[in-house]
């Protein structure tokens, strides 16, 4: 089992914690991690783009000039793609971009992402994150004490004082254990988790 240091909000080491190898010590499957990231980004797409083809643009029913004798190239409609106001060639239509992964694949990808962060020493555990008031400056001070900047902060419960204090910091994102995603784990340089959050992750995914 991997051992990680546990820090307090002042950035001082207050102990160590053993991580469960079933979650934080698995063999990293880069292919599954890639699939999970592609799926998450694809599932965010609305797929509502639409343009009209020549059959959908109004007008253009009359042949603009006779077939022969004008000196012009032959034309059958003023709504053909080469005309101004004409239709679009291979126009985009609404479609569903979503990609489905089964539960086992999702869990394996998440474990791989967490393991990679632990292996790279980019997984920081804090004993707790508690604020008596909503203040961005206080949260920023904690991040400075832990010597992390671009961070994903994982919480065991939805503490509004913590979440709202972090909301205005551009390079910090808060996440609950049940909303943890592979993309967020990889997007941010460091994962900062409370002891309670680590215990909850191990309980859910072990």
TrEMBL record:
A single Gene Ontology CC term: ribosome
Pfam families the record matches: Ribosomal_L4
Region (Disordered): 43-87
UniProt keyword annotations, A-Z: Ribonucleoprotein, Ribosomal protein, RNA-binding, rRNA-binding
InterPro entries on file: Ribosomal_uL4 (IPR002136), Ribosomal_uL4-like (IPR013005), Ribosomal_uL4_dom_sf (IPR023574)
Assembly behavior: Part of the 50S ribosomal subunit.
PANTHER family hit by this protein: 50S RIBOSOMAL PROTEIN L4 (PTHR10746), LARGE RIBOSOMAL SUBUNIT PROTEIN UL4M (PTHR10746:SF6)
HAMAP family: Ribosomal_uL4_B
Function: One of the primary rRNA binding proteins, this protein initially binds near the 5'-end of the 23S rRNA. It is important during the early stages of 50S assembly. It makes multiple contacts with different domains of the 23S rRNA in the assembled 50S subunit and ribosome.
Similarity-based family: Belongs to the universal ribosomal protein uL4 family.
Name of the molecule in the record: Large ribosomal subunit protein uL4
């Amino acid at each position: 089992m991997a051992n990680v240091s546990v820090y307090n909000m002042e950035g001082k080491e207050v102990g160590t914690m053993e991580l469960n190898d079933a979650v934080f010590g698995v063999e990293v499957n880069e292919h599954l991690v890639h699939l999970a990231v592609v799926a998450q980004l694809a599932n965010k797409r609305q797929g509502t783009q639409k343009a009209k083809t020549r059959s959908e643009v109004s007008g253009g029913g009359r042949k603009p000039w006779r077939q022969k004798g004008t000196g012009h190239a032959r034309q059958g409609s003023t709504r053909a793609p080469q005309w101004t106001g004409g239709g679009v060639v291979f126009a985009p239509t609404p479609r569903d971009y979503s990609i489905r992964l089964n539960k086992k694949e999702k869990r394996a990808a998440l474990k791989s992402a967490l393991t990679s962060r632990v292996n790279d020493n980019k997984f920081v555990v804090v004993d707790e994150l508690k604020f008596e008031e909503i203040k961005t400056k206080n949260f920023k001070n904690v991040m400075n004490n832990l010597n992390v900047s671009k961070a994903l902060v994982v919480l065991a419960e939805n503490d509004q004082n913590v979440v709202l204090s972090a909301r205005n910091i551009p390079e910090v994102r808060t996440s609950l254990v049940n909303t943890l995603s592979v993309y967020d784990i990889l997007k941010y340089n460091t994962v900062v988790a409370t002891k309670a959050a680590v215990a909850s992750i191990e309980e859910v995914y072990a």
